[in-house]
Amino acid sequence: MGRHKQHKPRSRGGSEQPVTGESATEWFGTAFHSTAGMQHLDVRQSGNGILITSAPAEVDGVLAGWPLRIRNDDDGQGLTELGTALASGQPHGIVGETGLGYERVLMFIPNHPEEGVGTLARIRTEDGPDGAIVFERRAERPMALWAEAGENLRRIVPLLSPDVPPADEPEESTPCPGCYRPVYDSSSSGMLIGAGPLPLVGLCRLCVNGTTLRSLEQVDVPLDARQRAVLESVSAALV
What's the pTM? Predict the structure, then answer.
């Protein structure tokens, strides 16, 4: 069987909506973990498909960002079905790559590994008498955050243009200095502002508008000194 890390308790689960006027084809959400800190879940257009970014996620046993691109090859039907499953908290699977002796499946598993937490995972099933199942990549988030992501995924799908070619190449991103959320070059979240003595480059919109700092003030989660200095500098610039 695949690896199952011990799930630590959350002090609070939830999400932060983008400000009014955010790009119609982007959505940002954040959950707060009592020991892991901020856990980001973003949904945005990528070419003619969707890019779901979980940061951090477990990738081959280590924590890293997981940019999951899902192509739109059926006029949005598959993406809409995934969004509906996320929004309603129902199990869902998408068969992906199949090779000699294995099959990869993208699975949404509600209330796993515990009640109120859902897992999006890329699973490899191997042929053989044991029928081994390996979790290659996995992101655990509160069910409420998956539901919000699903609603926004369904909102974005009708805006996808069939005339836009698939985004087959990886998109460049840099971590937001305030929250470490990946900020993509093609995203409207990329910003350059001056705050305090140092200019802060590439902040996500939730850090720029103060949402991140306001949310952190309501919960007790880990935050390193550099992040706090950035967020407080932005807050001072907004006054």
Answer: 0.84
